[in-house]
């Protein structure tokens, strides 16, 4: 692939990743002024991978740019469940991730209960908003 084409592809992936993160933040984490004083969001991205090239490319780009992320496999065998406790520490008022990268719109193989938690139409506890 030509160098300028690679640069454009990398720039497009960065734009997509940061747009997804911004949308998820605005949808998943609406807070009141009182909550804002005691709440915090870790500047970390949750990457759900099913081995697709696109997800691996986003993870590789985040590595190159020094973006902190946690990568978990979509296959639930041998990994912690992606539940409300995995995504946030409610007692401390802390969200553990500022964004989520999914392999595709259907969740890339995540079980239904976990897809609901990481959906842009649900809150960090899985309740629809």
Structure, explained:
Helix content is 43%, strand content 15%. The model is unreliable at 120-129 (pLDDT under 50). The chain has 129 residues and is of the alpha/beta class. The radius of gyration is 15 Å and the shape is globular. It has one domain (3-117). The termini are far apart. The protein contains 5 helices and 6 strands, in the order H-H-E-E-H-E-H-E-E-E-H. A 3-stranded mixed beta sheet has the order 1-5-4. Strands 3-2-6 form a 3-stranded parallel beta sheet. Helix 1 crosses helix 3 (53-65).
Give a short summary of the structure.
This protein is an alpha/beta fold.
Task: Chart the SSEs and their pairings.
Blueprint: H1 3-28, H2 33-38, E1 40-41, E2 45-49, H3 53-65, E3 69-73, H4 84-87, E4 88-89, E5 94-95, E6 99-101, H5 112-117
Parallel strand pairs: 1-5, 2-3, 2-6
Antiparallel strand pairs: 4-5
Helix pairs in contact: 1-3
């Amino acid at each position: 692939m030509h160098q300028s084409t690679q640069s454009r592809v990398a720039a497009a992936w960065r734009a997509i990743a940061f747009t997804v993160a911004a949308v998820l933040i605005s949808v998943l984490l609406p807070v009141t002024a009182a909550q804002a004083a005691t709440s915090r969001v870790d500047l970390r991205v949750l990457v759900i991978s099913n081995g697709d090239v696109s997800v691996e490319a986003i993870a590789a780009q985040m590595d190159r740019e020094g973006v902190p992320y946690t990568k978990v496999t979509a296959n639930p065998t041998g990994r912690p469940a992606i539940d409300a406790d995995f995504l946030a520490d409610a007692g401390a008022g802390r969200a553990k991730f500022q964004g989520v990268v999914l392999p595709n719109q259907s969740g890339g193989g995540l079980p239904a209960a976990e897809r609901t938690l990481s959906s842009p139409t649900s809150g960090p506890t899985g309740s629809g908003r």
